[in-house]
Amino acid sequence: KAGVTQTPRYLIKTRGQQVTLSCSPISGHRSVSWYQQTPGQGLQFLFEYFSETQRNKGNFPGRFSGRQFSNSRSEMNVSTLELGDSALYLCASSGGTSGGQETQYFGPGTRLLVL
Amino acid sequence: AQSVSQHNHHVILSEAASLELGCNYSYGGTVNLFWYVQYPGQHLQLLLKYFSGDPLVKGIKGFEAEFIKSKFSFNLRKPSVQWSDTAEYFCAVNAHSGGATNKLIFGTGTLLAVQP
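The joint structure predicted for all components is written out below.
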């Protein structure tokens, strides 16, 4: 099976712009979660989508949003970018039907640099 | 709030030395526990996990971890490290409270450097 894929792999934006990142989960997986990884804050949970519905949300401002499509692919959007949004954004997928007892498989990430 | 602590931020070992990385979490309910590893230039990948049953779990590449509920700990061990174990190691907890969620709380990571 192909792994989790994320596009684009690298992005450079300027403050105030918006950005959309894409994630394609492993075939058959219905849960997609997003994480932000920074040197200062480590790995932080952004949100999880399952069957096109947001199932859980982390403590991020409303500028961070996401959605999931019927084929389980997911996108996350960050509006009005700030310098502090520079990070590696990781997507993870899992089956979605076993409660918390699932292994999440991570993609390679999208590295976002905000200038 | 739930949190995960990894007390060793940087560890340097010689090949064949034994490894133990500490992980403690703060949550009184049911937890699922994970160790992930990130090799240089690679994705995060699962090393091992604990859901229930035998508290001593074995993972890939000779790693094991022991869940001690009374100590809220899930320490990672390997009896003899190799140069190829050089990587960053993350402990993660899913405090799902019986609900259907894949929200992982990660520790800050431990950077392990193994000297040949």
